[in-house]
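Attaching the record inline, Q. Sequence:
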Amino acid sequence: MNTDSYLLYQRFPQPLPEEVLKDYFYKYKSGDLEARKTIIEHNIKLVLYLIMKYFYDMPYELEDLFEVGLEGLINDVDTFDIDKGYKFSSYVKKCIDFKIYNYHNKEIKYIYRNISIDEPIYNSNFDKSTCLKNILSDEKIDIVGDCEKKELSKIVMEIVDELDEEDKKIITLYFGLNQNESYTQKEIAHIFNTRQATIGKKISRILNSMKERIVNGKEIKKNYCPEWLTMYKLAKAYYENNKNLEIPQCFKTKNGYEYDEDGAPLGRWIENQRVVYKNNKLTEDRKKLLEEIGMVFDVIQEKWDAKYELAKIYYEFHGNLQINRGFKTKNGYEYDEDGIALGEWLKNQKSLYFKGKLDDERKNKLDSIEMNFEKIRKYTK
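Structure, as predicted:
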């Protein structure tokens, strides 16, 4: 495990006292999702502590174990029964133990071994066409939508970029990288004014070195996580079928779009990605992949923006925000019993403002549609 991870320098919220934690659990069980969020945030430090104390000698990156632990924490918060008298931290430890050992048992199935240029990079993670030679060939790099090959291609090309100038040029010419024409060993030997046998030995040395870095080094473990990509594929299937990632927390699936009690916990995984993102721990590559399938990382902000847009439409249509508390709408300017409770929402914004909890950005947006907070008090009582 890497002991210099940025996670060790992060400042996480302190754990809550037992009585306070108990109150938050009762609030959550009553439907308060903000209480759930608070419980999760104040126990992230516990997850990191448990991993560093009990799993420091495992051959994985701290970031990967931390993500598994976070997924376990979210599951623990949702399944913990406060009335049974258990200590939550003890419950979390047992559940995270299970999650991490389960993760370990899956990982050890992926055996690293020596390979030739025409052999698959892995035994089972990639299909049989995925070998070093076809990754280096530009013709084979068109792998949009295939996350596994995309990850591996990136790793291999990064290694090529780190070669010294002569080795890099030889490999570039031999495989026709960067949309260049490929050359034979004899042609490359002529360019370098040397014997063909010398070029052949150099190519063999370079490829063996690259394979050794991929198989025995940290590049694959650091950049490639089979479990994450498996869940991503399910999320992509859900998006393609539903055109969104508004997945219920309890949603489980085997194919990505149909509920299956014995399937993978896709709903919890999606929420876990949001937690990881909020704590600035989601890599750019993963963030980009999720955004490609419509991932919204800040759901609360998205809902606020949607209601603000309705208020803006009301203002533009009526010329004011004199909205009764019971006003509901779907289009922003007409009452609809099945619509969004816009009047109640405006009252809540006013309440936040007077408590000093409405941030400046949101206040400025409301000011732009001439929301007079003193007047709103009158009309929404």
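The chain has a mean pLDDT of 78. The first helix runs from residue 18 to 29.

More tomorrow.
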